């Protein structure tokens, strides 16, 4: 009697495996190809990776790309044709391959139960619906990447946020455009951007963003409205008051930030902004909070809840605020530009970590660890 061995389990990816030999360089995938993959994905369990996701891995994998997503990388490692190449660059992809990846990514976006990084190109003409809410498990990294993605689609660069810039430099579709301005966004894109910011605020428990200074142009900003903002956000908010009155910024990171703010209209060269009495009072409120947070870094342990919702770039700035107070000279260009713009910063080439007090060192190490952990999460976002 002949018995069929149980070891020969049914192939869960027959349609995907047929496409492994597809000529992505010279042919475009058809709707029928993608429909077969979707049918293959329907009966899958929660632990299985969708065929459409793995197909994206196949297109890149033909060039040796190494994925951060473990399940895609594990799949590629088992392919006899896969040769990992740490030097892979998106420049290796030709136009047809890029179009195929676009088709795959669009199909992926349709299958997502919530909007994810990498999906925003397919929402340029559609308003967000119920696929976006604060109770869907978004991380701050997810939300910041998606906010930036809306503008990166149009070529915005992020010189003040090197990790974010690196993220988009690694996207096959990204084309930096130094002439980008926020005014180039459509009404729908601006609404979607605002929706993402609202979800971020709900998760972080904040009620204020720098652009809100426009609402307080003629009335005091309540101090409690500024609670939960980071030092960096307080500094942006303070300078937003000057920007509201047309100041022309000489500091690189401020100039770059406000160049991408839709309402910002700088005064003619040589003309100074005129602050109102209300502006001056609001500046005092912000400076008082800045000073309090600034001093707490050296005098008190940092409570964990203070870091809730901070983006990796905010954590990097906050951590380096401590050695910056002692004059550390920064090799990192973004950090050097940021701290050089602050009036209290005095570079000291002789600085060493031994200059820090016990409390400062503990806070510094705690913040560096938080930044490192957040960087790992950020790196896992494939987009």
Characterise the protein shown here.
This protein has 14 helices and no strands. By secondary structure, the protein is mostly helical. The protein folds into four domains: 102 residues, Methane Monooxygenase Hydroxylase, Chain G, domain 1 (Up-down Bundle), CATH 1.20.58; 90 residues, Methane Monooxygenase Hydroxylase, Chain G, domain 1 (Up-down Bundle); 83 residues, Methane Monooxygenase Hydroxylase, Chain G, domain 1 (Up-down Bundle); 84 residues, Methane Monooxygenase Hydroxylase, Chain G, domain 1, CATH 1.20.58. The longest helix has 23 residues.
**Alpha-beta content class:** mainly alpha
Total strands: the figure is 0
Radius of gyration: 24 Å
CATH topology of the largest domain: Methane Monooxygenase Hydroxylase, Chain G, domain 1
Tell me the count of domains: 4
Specify the biggest β-sheet. Answer: none
Order of helices and strands: HHHHHHHHHHHHHH
Name of the level-1 CATH class of the largest domain: Mainly Alpha
The CATH architecture assignment of the largest domain turns out to be: Up-down Bundle
What distance lies between the first and last C-alpha atoms, to the nearest angstrom? 53 Å
Low-confidence stretches: 1-8
What is the number of helical segments per DSSP (H or I, 4+ residues)?
A: 14
Strand content: under 5%
Question: Average pLDDT value?
Answer: 88
* Broad shape: globular
Helix proportion: 40-55%
């Amino acid at each position: 009697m002949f018995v069929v061995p149980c070891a020969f389990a049914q192939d869960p990816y027959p349609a995907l495996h047929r496409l492994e030999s597809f000529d992505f360089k010279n042919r475009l995938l058809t709707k029928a190809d993608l429909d077969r993959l979707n049918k293959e994905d329907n009966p899958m369990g929660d632990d299985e990776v969708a065929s459409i996701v793995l197909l994206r891995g196949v297109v890149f994998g033909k060039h040796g790309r190494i994925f951060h997503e473990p399940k895609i990388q594990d799949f590629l490692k088992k392919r006899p044709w896969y040769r990992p190449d740490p030097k892979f660059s998106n420049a290796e992809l030709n136009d047809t391959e890029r179009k195929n990846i676009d088709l795959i990514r669009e199909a992926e976006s349709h299958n997502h139960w919530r909007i994810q990084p990498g999906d925003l190109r397919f929402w340029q003409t559609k308003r967000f619906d119920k696929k976006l809410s604060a109770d869907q498990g978004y991380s701050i990294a997810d939300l910041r990447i998606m906010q930036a993605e809306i503008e990166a689609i149009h070529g915005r660069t992020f010189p003040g946020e090197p990790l974010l810039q690196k993220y988009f430099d690694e996207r096959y579709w990204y084309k930096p455009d130094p002439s980008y301005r926020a005014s180039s966004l459509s009404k729908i894109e601006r609404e979607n951007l605002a929706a993402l910011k609202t979800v971020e605020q709900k998760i972080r428990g904040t009620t204020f963003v720098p652009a809100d200074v426009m609402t307080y142009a003629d009335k005091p900003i309540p101090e409690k409205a500024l609670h939960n903002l980071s030092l960096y956000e307080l500094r942006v908010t303070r300078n937003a008051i000057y920007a509201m009155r047309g100041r022309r910024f000489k500091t690189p990171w401020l100039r770059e930030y406000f160049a991408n703010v839709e309402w910002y209209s700088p005064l003619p060269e040589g003309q100074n902004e005129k602050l109102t009495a209300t502006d001056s009072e609001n500046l005092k409120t912000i400076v008082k909070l800045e000073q309090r947070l600034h001093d707490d870094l050296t005098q008190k342990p940092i409570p964990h809840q203070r870091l809730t919702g901070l983006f990796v770039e905010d954590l990097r700035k906050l951590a380096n605020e401590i050695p910056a107070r002692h004059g550390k000279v920064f090799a990192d260009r973004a950090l050097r530009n940021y701290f050089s713009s602050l009036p209290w910063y005095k570079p000291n080439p002789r600085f060493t970590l031994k200059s820090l007090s016990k409390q400062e060192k503990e806070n510094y190490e705690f913040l560096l660890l938080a930044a490192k952990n957040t960087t790992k999460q950020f790196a896992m976002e494939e987009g």
